[in-house]
Amino acid sequence: MARVTISDVARTVGTSKKTISRVLNNDPNVSESMRQRVAAAVAALNYRPLTSARSLAANRSFMIGLLYDNRSPSYIMEVQAGVLEACEAQHYSMMVQPLVSMAPDFVERVEDILSRHRPDGLILTPPITDHPQLLDCLRRQGVPFASIAPRQPEACIGVMLREREAAAAMVEHLVSLGHRRIAHILGDPEHGAGIWRLAGYRDGLARAGLMEDPAYMVQGRFSFESGVAAMRRLLALPLRPTAIFAADDDMAVGAIWAAAEAGVSIPGEISICGFDDTTIATQVWPPLTTVRQPVREMGQRATQELLVRVLNKGEARMVEVDYEMRIRASTAPPP
Amino acid sequence: MARVTISDVARTVGTSKKTISRVLNNDPNVSESMRQRVAAAVAALNYRPLTSARSLAANRSFMIGLLYDNRSPSYIMEVQAGVLEACEAQHYSMMVQPLVSMAPDFVERVEDILSRHRPDGLILTPPITDHPQLLDCLRRQGVPFASIAPRQPEACIGVMLREREAAAAMVEHLVSLGHRRIAHILGDPEHGAGIWRLAGYRDGLARAGLMEDPAYMVQGRFSFESGVAAMRRLLALPLRPTAIFAADDDMAVGAIWAAAEAGVSIPGEISICGFDDTTIATQVWPPLTTVRQPVREMGQRATQELLVRVLNKGEARMVEVDYEMRIRASTAPPP
DNA sequence: GGAGTCCATGTCAGCCCTGTCAGGTACGGT
DNA sequence: ACCGTACCTGACAGGGCTGACATGGACTCC
Hints:
The structure is a homodimer. Chain A is built from 12 helices and 12 strands. Chain A has helices spanning 6-13, 17-24, 32-45, 51-58, 73-89, 106-117, 132-141, 163-177, 192-207, 224-235, 249-262, 295-310; strands spanning 63-69, 93-99, 121-124, 145-148, 157-161, 182-186, 217-219, 243-246, 271-273, 290-292, 318-321, 324-326. Chain A binds chain B through residues 1, 3, 46, 48-53, 55-56, 61, 73-74, 76-78, 80-81, 84, 93-96, 98, 112, 115-118, 141, 224, 253-254, 256-257, 260-261, 279-280, 282-286, and chain B through 1, 3, 46, 48-53, 55-56, 61, 73-74, 76-78, 80-81, 84, 93-96, 98, 112, 115-118, 141, 224, 253-254, 256-257, 260-261, 279-280, 282-286. Chain A binds a DNA duplex through helix 2 and helix 4.
């Protein structure tokens, strides 16, 4: 059962390879009747063009690359699912590349991928979105890329969300419940998400006329463990906060865990809320109040913009998607 | 900055393209001195072979495909990480394809990928491992594949784990704590994992001389929600079990959630344990007793076996990896 | 010393497509 | 009748690499 090639189809139809190619690539200059005859033959022979041959001849790969640095698996899986959906819609394929953005050979590794596979574009996820040398390198080489939640959204195409505003809204929610002593577990200070959410927390306090208290601002690193550690410190304070806004769900879940460990009732004694609305937010007890980011949609939208640019189908932009508050049982009025 | 090709390297060294090719492909018939000169030129020019050209000429893609049907994201991410590690070691790349194994065009979609990208091999994850038409199709077409935890491990290469034995060991653990009324939340009856873990549960009961009670065997579907539903049914029984073995962590976490909802103390009133040791197992309260599957390693080992077959480097096999009991705070003696 | 063997290297065609450009037809306007 | 234009189609030449085979020199063996 040898491979069916474009020549076989051409022979069957009684035309040239080029015409078959045109039909397959939706070239406008083909008569309707020819289009139909070709389509019939393609279906009959079950012909499918070989990607590597197409790539070589057309000098593009029909593939985009998704680069990520170990954030939470559920985040990446959601992004990946969205990217794949958008790729599929344009008959593109996706290759994924996990990377360590702190590694000394980081940029080199990306260059390696670029020169071996020549992806037509890249999707960058935080924190890779903000790696100056990488961005330089991509711009110099003219490789199109789209970013998800980059720190400098003006400079790129992709997708973003008003995280600062959302964080402020979350603090407002706590304030409206009656809380006055509201702590924040900070995210990674290098990540845009960490910076924006902290800024939003401050906005929220300011709007409510509350003073910032350094003791109530504990550094975390967007991980469950760092949430546990931060919560232990907060619980050790002489005057405990009555509400805690963690910069992501993983840390919020860690905070809930540490509260359980210490026998502190949530939300009875302390309210806790997070950010992201990952799967785990509804699987812990009590269900976590959080801000929903439509991560899958963000992957999809970013990819759509990337493909607009790659395929020259118009002006690609930085798209903004909306957050949604998810008020659940982990927040309640203070005791 | 035009692309550096193999011809540029050949010109620089003063030899033929073929010799460069031989060096790059580790062909044995090259003199040491030539090998070094070529290596130097490759490094100097920063040359990297173009994958699509290699694929076209060599009639192989230097790529394997990972097929999955929406299991839990953390499971897939772990498998994917393992597969990527093993690929990298052999300078292979990976493409992923999420699929719906119940879809009517399932096999056709896989065939599409096969003929377009010609992956040199496939990694199958449950439940795709057990799709008879797909296996037929792959065998007919001679496409190498490796399976992770297939239902019929004798017939394939890949990786497996003694799940039945592990499930029995878990029941034994509960029995040793003094439990006599032990319930089971079943996994998907179509999945090998569901079948083996149920069998192991029965083995465990039998070994302890305990009778099976149909009321204590509640159907689940390997999802959090199904675990919640199953737990609600168990809690409604006139004589509640004192321990519950859920066929996976997601369902166990669902059971813990439903217990919290009902105000039932874990492990005070009921002990709960799961299977898999996914991330969430240590993030819920109380931390979940479970069986650890080395999922990442499994992805890696399966890929190694696949590449052994693909590269004809010996006899590929069905590898067995070990489980480990993780006894945590969710199990304790009955009240 | 001649045949056989082995190894290192080179030549050339071809993998399967698409870009380029030329050719050919149909139709409308002058 | 002629030209211009628009549209459709085909011939051809690669894209960058490797497989098959040829070549030529060094070495072995009787």
